[in-house]
């Protein structure tokens, strides 16, 4: 069975070789206008262009086996020669049809179908044996063609195996590269996860530290606010105390003046008393 791939008839991809549209078209044209390839024509006479091809090799064999020329009366020597020539000509034409049909079928078969080629060739050779014609050179070329097709199929199979081996090696290299890359990325991922964990811990530590700092700041702000309020009150108290101090100072000054005046009055009284006593003596 031919593999799906590049068709060696139309050089296109995507269809089975035996279903090639170019191949089918050429077969139809070949069946309409039969001809013999120049590769074999040196051993065979020309095929008349108006002679229809036999539809099947077995039909050709039956046609040759059942060929019964009719000739009324008893033939003379000339008639026997004509009859022999007619029979030989008919057999030759039938042989040409068999050979042409075989060439047409072999030409458009895939080299991978060399077993089918051998089977078709054996059927044709059996029919040619029945026709009593010399087809030795033709058979030799046919066998050479089939042998070449078989060799080509083996080469194609070897190429496919080589392609498979190359693909296997390529896939192994790709797998090894991917495994190495997977190991590297796994290690990097582990390191990255450790770094993420460490950074998360550091983030939590710093967040807690920040919360502590914010708490301390709030406490100090509250304390500063309280101190400011207290300072305002103390300032007011200091102002009031200063006023009272000034008033007290003034009172003390007045008291000192009164004390001096009192002392002066007492001195004056003592002096007057002393003078009065002095007058008595």
Automatic annotation (TrEMBL):
Transmembrane segments: none annotated. Residues 196-251 form a coiled coil. One of its GO terms (molecular function) is zinc ion binding. The keyword Iron does not apply. InterPro entries: Znf_CCHC (IPR001878), Znf_CCHC_sf (IPR036875). PROSITE patterns: ZF_CCHC. It holds the Pfam family zf-CCHC. SUPFAM superfamilies: Retrovirus zinc finger-like domains. Residues 7-22 form the CCHC-type domain. Keywords: Coiled coil, Metal-binding, Zinc, Zinc-finger. This is Zinc finger, CCHC-type.
């Amino acid at each position: 069975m031919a593999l799906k791939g590049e068709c060696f008839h139309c050089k296109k991809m995507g269809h089975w070789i035996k279903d090639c549209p170019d191949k089918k078209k050429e077969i139809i044209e070949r069946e309409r206008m039969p001809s013999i390839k120049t590769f074999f024509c040196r051993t065979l006479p020309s095929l008349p262009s108006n002679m229809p091809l036999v539809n099947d090799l077995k039909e050709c064999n039956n046609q040759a086996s059942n060929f019964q020329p009719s000739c009324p009366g008893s033939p003379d020597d000339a008639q026997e020669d004509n009859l022999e020539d007619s029979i030989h000509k008919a057999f030759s034409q039938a042989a040409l049809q068999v050979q042409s049909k075989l060439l047409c079928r072999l030409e458009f078969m895939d080299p991978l179908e060399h077993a089918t080629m051998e089977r078709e060739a054996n059927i044709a050779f059996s029919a040619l044996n029945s026709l009593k014609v010399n087809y030795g050179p033709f058979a030799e070329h046919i066998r050479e063609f089939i042998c070449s097709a078989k060799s080509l199929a083996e080469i194609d199979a070897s190429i496919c195996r080589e392609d498979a081996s190359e693909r296997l090696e390529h896939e192994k290299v790709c797998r090894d590269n991917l495994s190495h890359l997977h190991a590297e990325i796994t290690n990097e991922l582990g390191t990255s996860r450790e770094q993420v964990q460490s950074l998360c811990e550091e983030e939590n530590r710093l967040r807690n530290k920040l919360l502590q700092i914010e708490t301390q700041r709030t406490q100090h702000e509250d304390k500063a606010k309280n101190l400011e309020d207290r300072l305002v009150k103390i300032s007011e108290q200091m102002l009031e105390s200063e006023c009272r101090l000034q008033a007290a100072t003034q009172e003390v000054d007045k008291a000192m003046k009164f004390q001096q005046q009192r002392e002066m009055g007492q001195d004056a009284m003592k002096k007057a008393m002393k003078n009065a006593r002095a007058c008595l003596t």
